[in-house]
Amino acid sequence: MEYTVEMRHIVQRFGEKEVLRGIDLKIHEGEIFGLLGPSGAGKTTLIKILTGQLRQTAGEVQIFGKNAGNRKENLSKMGMMMDNFGLYERLSCYDNLKLFTRIYDVPEKRADEILRRVGLYEDRKLPVMKLSKGMRSRLSLARAVMNEPRILFLDEPASGLDPATAAEIHKLVQEEKSRGATIFLTTHNMEEAHKLCDHVALLHEGVIMEYGQPGEVCCRYNHQNKLLLRLLNGKMVEMSNNRTSAEKVKEYLEQEMVETIHSTEPSLETVFMELTGRGLE
Ligand SMILES: Nc1ncnc2c1ncn2[C@@H]1O[C@H](COP(=O)(O)OP(=O)(O)O)[C@@H](O)[C@H]1O
Ligand SMILES: [Mg+2]
Fold it and tell me: Who lines ligand 1 at CB under 6 A?
């Protein structure tokens, strides 16, 4: 199967308000897909539709080739980590996971295996209310991958985490991809998306404004198309990114004068600002 998820013209209204205004997206099997958008864009709403927590106003969703109506059948193949974590505050890390081994009907020893994997084994007896935000994220992710899902939905998995903890979460997400899972994540962190995702879509005011591989999207907005050289003497040199610059670049390199060379394609963040007229935070 080429696509794990196919959405056709998804519309979601809450009263008068149209939050999603016709979303068409396809998620490739085995990829990490990132849905990007500012707060309030409708990212969580779309995840809720895909995971069967919300019935869309209009449009169709197919997951593993099955219609939305058959989503119960898909549930055992899904893992999800929503932004409210869904953990029991008074139960220990271990007991939280144990509960889910029963729900998913997997051996109880799986709880310990996963606690080790996410680095919470030493703290397995701590109640959730004593955990830091980073530990909660890891526990929540542990719970989401308990049943070795074929598709994993992660709603802002690394939001509000320090860079080191975010990197741990990213590593776990990549391990899930290596295992063969398809990953659908939302984020408003463009750097995270660029590093992690095979494809991204930019959601703004209910429509998908851009879609593609992160690098490819950035290159589409490389209006200047220049090369920027920083020389060892501190001087900056700008030249066109074409053959007319070949001799000059060669000369600088031969004279060992080059500190850095960059092309002028913008970051995803800059692309988003150009498209929406504002930043993401
Ligand atoms: N159950 C609901 N009833 C009414 N409005 C809602 C409901 N859920 C979400 N919304 C509205 O839909 C918009 C998108 O919300 P959400 O999907 O949570 O955005 P995001 O996850 O991108 O921050 C917001 O304006 C939010 O207030
Ligand atoms: Mg959200």
Answer: 14, 19, 37, 39-45
**Domain residue limits at 53:** 1-77+149-220
Same domain? For 195 and 237 the reply is no
pLDDT given for residue 67 in this prediction: 73
- Number of folded domains that form the chain: 3
Q: Which two tokens stand for residue 17?
A: 């308000």
Residue ranges, the chain, pLDDT below 70: 1, 68-73, 84-85, 278-281
Q: How far apart are the first and last CA of the chain?
A: 36
Predicted TM-score of the model (pTM): 0.92
Q: At what angle do helices 109-117 and 133-144 cross, to 10 degrees?
A: 130
Is residue 4 domain-resident? yes
- For ligand 1, what atom is nearest to the CA of residue 203? 22
For residue 56, report the distance from its CA to the centre of ligand 2, in Å: 16
Q: Which residues surround ligand 2, an ion (CB under 5 A)?
A: 43-44
